[in-house]
Write a structure and sequence with these properties.
The protein has about 625 residues and is α/β, with parallel strands linked by helices. The protein has 20 helices and 28 strands. It binds zinc ion (ZN).
């Protein structure tokens, strides 16, 4: 009798229409957090900014596609997990989850999905392992026991996972990190979406990513086509709804007393009142999505860490100040914290005349600020060209010298001359003599000649290098070999990105490039000879550096190799700023030793003036700028 009852129960469950509930209702009622992968444990509670994105995935919502453009750790993974739980429990169907790499897909299945199905009572037993001798297969393929359907986890690189049975639910995670093509099959996003054609009436496609570079971003295209829901929160003082942003520091946004970002507060764009950390939860609780492109029928949602109650204003401001030191870290901050696109601005700033006009007199061969020297050498049939670059705190750089050594490179003379320069010393403004710490020589042309020169100089860090096109890091983890002789493959695209980013920095300080008076215009024309182009591969944009017609670029190559030399040190564990601190401490010790002892109070300001009294409340400063410095065009580099 008992068996009979069970069978009746099961069959009636199979034929019942799906329960009328939204994904957020389901999660609030049924999802239990384990505390292992996520920081929280206990019953799931949907936050305001998660509710609408999740409910757009519910069967009751007519949307066929949902776009989530989010900062890291805010929205994507938890929404996808809740949706998977909902699918398994309420409305099963064939499901495909795509991560950038197969390793990411395995990790999601093992570390996030499996624990959720174990910890939530309503999900227990609802995900069955598909029997296979291959353990990868059992992680990546699961069957729903509650009716029809299965879930497959795959990486965007493997076409096999994408070209398979019809799919009703497609969950595409971190799409900006997908390759341009899945093997030779074409765009992985289009491939996955094509699988849903048999479920035209009830399919759901979820596209998620943190944004990357404008013009080369998949989520940008999806976001532009969506209704672009921005999350607005009310000011606790005046009630004005706004999307919290870094802002300019005076009119609205994060502001802080000089040099104390950890004390940051948020200034309302309406009443200009200052909002404290403890008021953030109140604001977020009352927040709502407002479509900026209401004509679209595709729901899109953007969420930034500015509204995370776990991220105090002071932490965000401190991270921002640190991130501003280099274009790479600022890009990461924009993408993963603010969920904003990075704008490539190489063209406008790297103009030869502008750079030429910036040439400045140096007080010595090596001016103060420089703590380390590297050199880059370009090899051509009839000459060697070489630049010596000085590096300081936060990769501020000074071009120290540029040499052209004419002569047939198959003869010994040019190499003898080069060896002489590499062994010489350079006079620092502090009175010391400096040597070149690393030299990278291009071996793309006549590699055996170059390798013959470098083979007994490896310990002096005189390296043969070769440019490698395509994506990848600037300095490899280990050398390549030719006839037992080591050389290094350099990611020239990334190196040129870094060099051009630095050339476009206008203000002295982090990443700024200095040039000595007397350097000719031809040098700067070569330095700026390449432009970034967009190449389309399976319809997907990829950036690539190209040399203009009739242009020479030896100066650029030299700078790229000198920068790669710095990278070789950083890759091997050197901290440039630590090195500079030690260098400057040593310089001060030597200066003290040479100077008569100071008899007066050593801490008194040299000009005799007293230090300004600290302001009582540095935030009251307001628009006259007495305590706050405006950050206009803070993105300008
Ligand atoms: Zn206000």
């Amino acid at each position: 009798m008992a068996t009979q009852a069970v069978i009746t129960d099961l069959s009636s469950a199979l034929f019942l229409p799906p329960r009328e509930m939204t994904v957020s209702q389901w999660a609030d009622e049924n999802r239990v957090l384990t505390g292992t992968a996520s920081a929280e444990r206990g019953q799931w509670h949907t936050r305001t900014y998660q509710r609408e994105p999740m409910d757009a995935m519910s069967p009751s919502n007519p949307a066929k596609m949902v776009v989530l453009m989010s900062a890291a750790q805010m929205l994507k993974t938890e929404c996808l997990l809740n949706f998977l739980g909902f699918i398994a429990d309420v409305d099963p169907g064939p499901t495909l989850v795509v991560e950038p790499r197969i390793e990411d897909a395995k990790a999601l299945s093992k570390d996030r999905v499996a624990p959720m199905f174990r910890a939530s009572p309503v999900l227990r037993g609802k995900l069955a392992t598909v029997k296979s001798r291959d353990s990868d297969n059992t992680t990546l393929h699961k069957a729903f026991t509650n009716g029809a359907g299965h879930v497959t986890f795959t990486g965007a690189i493997s076409p096999s996972g994408l070209a398979m049975r019809p799919i009703r639910y497609v969950l595409l995670d971190e799409i900006d990190r997908y390759p341009a093509s899945a093997g030779t099959e074409g765009d992985p996003v289009s491939l996955a979406i094509q699988r849903t054609s048999e479920f035209e009436h009830n399919k759901k496609i979820v596209l998620c990513s943190t944004p990357t570079v404008r013009g080369a971003s998949r989520i940008e295209k999806a976001w532009n086509e969506s209704d672009q829901g921005e999350f607005f929160v009310p000011c606790p003082v005046c009630g004005e709804f706004q999307v919290p942003d870094i802002g300019d520091g005076v009119e609205s946004g994060l502001c802080w007393p000089p040099d104390q970002p950890e004390l940051a507060q948020y200034r309302c764009c309406g009443c200009k009142g200052l909002i404290q950390d403890h008021q953030k939860a109140w604001m977020v609780e009352r927040g709502e999505f407002r479509a900026q492109n209401p004509a679209s029928s595709i729901p899109g949602f953007r969420v930034t860490q500015m509204i995370s109650v776990k991220r105090p204003w002071g932490t965000l401001a401190t991270e921002f100040v640190a991130a501003r030191k280099s274009p790479e870290t600022l890009k990461a901050f924009l993408n993963t914290v603010l969920a904003k696109f990075w704008e490539e601005r190489h063209e406008e700033a790297t103009d030869a005349h502008t750079l030429w006009n910036r040439c400045e007199p140096y007080a010595a061969e090596v001016p103060n600020g420089v703590c380390l020297l590297t050199a880059g050498v370009d090899v051509q049939a009839d000459r060697l060209e070489m630049e010596i670059v000085g590096w300081g705190m936060d990769e501020e750089s000074w071009s120290i010298a540029y040499h052209v050594i004419p002569g047939d490179i198959l003869r010994n003379e040019v190499w003898t001359d080069l060896n002489e320069i590499l062994g010489s010393t350079f006079a620092h403004e502090n009175g010391q003599q400096m040597r070149i710490k690393v030299t990278c020589i291009d071996s793309g042309y006549k590699d055996s000649t170059v390798l013959r020169f470098t083979r007994d100089k490896y310990n002096r860090r005189v390296f043969a290098t070769k440019g490698r096109s395509g994506e990848g890091t600037i300095w490899p983890h280990k050398p390549s070999k030719k006839k037992q002789m080591p050389f290094f493959m350099i990611g020239v695209n990334a190196a040129k990105d870094a060099v051009y980013d630095r050339l476009s920095v206008k203000d002295e300080g982090p990443c700024c490039c200095h040039f000595p008076q007397g350097r000719d215009l031809e040098y700067f024309e070569q330095l700026t000879a390449e432009k970034k182009f967009i190449k389309y591969h399976f319809g997907f944009a990829k950036h690539e550096w190209r040399l203009g017609a009739d242009k020479r670029n030896a100066a650029l190559d030299c700078r790229v190799y000198a920068y790669a030399g710095l990278q070789s040190l950083l890759t091997s564990g050197l901290s440039l700023n630590k090195w500079c601190e030690n260098f400057e401490a040593m310089q001060q010790r030597q200066a003290r030793a040479q100077r008569p002892a100071v008899t007066d109070d050593a801490t008194a300001p040299v000009d005799g003036r007293r230090h300004a009294q600290p302001q009582e409340n540095p935030f009251v400063a307001g628009r006259d700028g007495t305590g706050l410095t405006r950050r206009p065009n803070w993105l300008e580099r």
